[in-house]
Amino acid sequence: MNFKPVKVKKIYAEIVEQIKDQIKAGKLSSGDKLPTLKEFAENLQVGQSAVREALTVLEAMGLVEIRQGGGAYIRRSQTDETIEPLSMMLLLERDLSLEVLHVRKFLEVGAAGLAATQRTAEELLTMEKALRKMEKDIQSGNLGEKADWEFHYAVAEASHNSLLIRLMHTVADNMRVSMKTNRRLLFEQNGMPKKLYEEHKKIYEAIKNQNSMLAEQNMYDHLYRVELYMGHIDLVEKK
């Protein structure tokens, strides 16, 4: 018989499970305020970074609302906004999150190349609008994950490849969740918001100039760098 090695659950994943269990048991209800990072960390005897990441995951799941300067609260039950089980796995298992990036490279590198030759003036305007929204979000201190998704989906639509667009639809929910979680973690690194914006702008410029090879290269470089950044975070966690 063949058995797979037992994986030790990461600290933040254990915190997520504890809070979910408290909600299911009715010990935490809609509107309840959660302890501060310091209180949580002391109570659970873990680092504040693990608590912060757990809250980020719970927010992406739609279970917790993080208010700027006001703490974290249990959200009102909104089933349609709660992510599917596969998306939960993507949040709790960083390896799966990286696999989403691998899939994105297969889909989006080719999409960028096609978009450079197929895009219309209207589709360029859609990309520009997403970039302006992304820049505004960065200036306001927001994550900008919606603008991020809108940009990448606009590139896919500009490819005019119906199968590719359908495949993007298939992984859309997982991509949006992954983008939000990745951005929250990446934005803790100095200068990262501006770097990500500039990478998107380079992709747009190549598509605008109808340079198919450069569009593909810029998209690949962007996704590869995000993969490296996320890998770096994993290495820090394991130390």
Automatic annotation (TrEMBL):
<keyword id="KW-0804">Transcription</keyword>
<keyword id="KW-0238">DNA-binding</keyword>
<dbReference type="Pfam" id="PF07729">
    <property type="entry name" value="FCD"/>
</dbReference>
<dbReference type="InterPro" id="IPR011711">
    <property type="entry name" value="GntR_C"/>
</dbReference>
<dbReference type="InterPro" id="IPR036390">
    <property type="entry name" value="WH_DNA-bd_sf"/>
</dbReference>
<dbReference type="InterPro" id="IPR008920">
    <property type="entry name" value="TF_FadR/GntR_C"/>
</dbReference>
<dbReference type="Pfam" id="PF00392">
    <property type="entry name" value="GntR"/>
</dbReference>
<dbReference type="InterPro" id="IPR000524">
    <property type="entry name" value="Tscrpt_reg_HTH_GntR"/>
</dbReference>
<keyword id="KW-0805">Transcription regulation</keyword>
<feature type="domain" description="HTH gntR-type">
    <location>
        <begin position="9"/>
        <end position="77"/>
    </location>
</feature>
<dbReference type="GO" id="GO:0003700">
    <property type="term" value="F:DNA-binding transcription factor activity"/>
</dbReference>
<dbReference type="InterPro" id="IPR036388">
    <property type="entry name" value="WH-like_DNA-bd_sf"/>
</dbReference>
<dbReference type="GO" id="GO:0003677">
    <property type="term" value="F:DNA binding"/>
</dbReference>
<protein>
    <recommendedName>
        <fullName>HTH gntR-type domain-containing protein</fullName>
    </recommendedName>
</protein>
